[in-house]
Each structure stands twice: as C-alpha cells, then as structure tokens.
Amino acid sequence: MTTTIEAHRPGPRAWATLAKCEAKMVIRDTAGLVVPIGLPLLILIMSASAAGSEAAGDTGLTGLEVYVLPLVFAMVIAAIGIINMPSFLAYYRRTGILRRLSVTPASPAMVLVAQAVVSLIQAVIGISAALAVAVLVFGAQFPAAPVAALGVALLGLAAMYGVGMIVAAVAPTPNSAVAIGLIAFFAIGALGGLFGGPGSLPDGLARVGEHLPFGATMQALGAAWAGSGIDPAHLVSLGAAVLVGGIVAAALFRWD
C-alpha cells in the first residue's frame, strides 16, 4: 500500500521562522552589523559639528540636515542592499541551500522575502540610531516632509536591492559577492557624493552620479528634509534601478 504525503504551502508560521533564522544569521555576522550601522554613525559623529554650523542656503537648515544625514542614510541602505544581502545569497547558493529548497514547498523565493524583511529591520535600526544621535546630540531638525522622506528611504532601499541582486547573480562565492559589492558600493557612492558634494566631481560624472541609486537617494532625501520638492527625475532613477536590477538578476541568477 502506497502512502501519499500531501505537500502544503508554507503558512505564516513558516515565513516567520525563516525570517527569524535570517535575522540570527545577520546577528552572527559581526561585520554585517558594524559596517551598515556603525560606520555611518561614526561618519555622522565626525561630521555633525562642522556641518551643523554651516547654513544650507535660505532653507533655514544646516549642512547636517541637508547633506550629512541624507549621506548617512544612503550609506546605511546601500551597505545593506549591495554588500550584506548578496553575500548571504551567494553563501546559500554555494552550500546548496537554495537548491534543496527548490524541491520543497518552501520556495527559494522565500529566502529573498525573508532577507528583505531582515534588511528592512536593519535599515530601520541604522537610520533610527543616526537620526536619534543627530537630533538629541547635535540638535538636528526633523524633515519638513517626513512622509516623503520615508517613501524615498524605502524606494532607495529597493533600488540598492536591485543593484545587490545583480551582484548576487554574478558572484560565484560569498567572498566574491563581498568584493563585488564593495566595488559597486564605492563606485556608485563616489559618483553620488560619498566623498564630497557634486561640485567635487566633473560635471559629466556629477550628472551621472546624481541619477545612480546612491546619488538619487541623497538628492531626494535632502529635498524632503528641506521641504523644497523632490525632483521627479530622482524618483524615476530609483524606480528604474529597481526594474533593471530585477530584470537583469532574473536573467542571470542561478539557484545552484
């Protein structure tokens, strides 16, 4: 007599368990916590005093709100989306976890969702810590358009995830994923204002960097903080990064 075992789709408990496991993996990765949270916070502390004493035009704000905080927030979400996430996916693929999941009701896509949830929690922690220090210690003001700032941060994280998915698709090993992710992080960061404002770059490079995920996130967050209206081109650039990243990753990504 043959016994048939009926497979059931994973329920909410399975999704929660997978997200919990992903969170434990991230917590155990010390560098994965220090880089996206500790490094931006250190840069904020080092830059806040000088930037807080410089007026940002006629906005009534200082360079701390208009430049440093958007820079720090962009660093947090870029490190999470471009460096951390691809290294975990490359590790799962290298060890065969994704291949084994593909023959179970627990689709490998569940790993992506769990990673997205954990990444969002990391981003919230990193951004909240930086904002708390900036407001409580250095007297920074909250954004004039908080809802717009929140929307930009979420869209920016999705755009960084788009870049990170391409990194995960082409990286054969966890170490190579970290290396490629670091190169991508510093490349789009340098063009987007990580090492100085757009004025420190040639005009052509500055225009390109302004529409890459890092620069577009910084520019849109700065506008939301000042309440001056976000340039739609920056939002389009972030949306395009999400779309292109998804298409390219879907074409190149292999589960084993």
Please characterize this protein's 3D structure.
This protein has helices at 12-28, 30-52, 63-94, 97-101, 109-136, 146-170, 174-192, 203-210, 213-226, 232-252. The chain has 256 residues and is mainly α. The radius of gyration is 20 Å and the shape is globular.
Proportion of helical residues? over 70%
Structural class of the secondary structure composition?
A: mainly alpha
Uncertain residue ranges: none
Global Rg: 20 Å
Q: Biggest sheet: strands, sense, closure?
A: none
Shape: globular
On the 0 to 100 scale, the average pLDDT is 85
Report the strand count. Answer: 0
Order of helices and strands: HHHHHHHHHH
Quote the distance from N terminus to C terminus: 36 Å
List the helices and strands and how they pair.
Elements: H1 12-28, H2 30-52, H3 63-94, H4 97-101, H5 109-136, H6 146-170, H7 174-192, H8 203-210, H9 213-226, H10 232-252
Summed up:
This protein is mainly α. The chain is built from ten helices and no strands.
Task: Spell out the key features of this protein.
single chain, 256 residues, mainly alpha, 10 helices, 75% helix
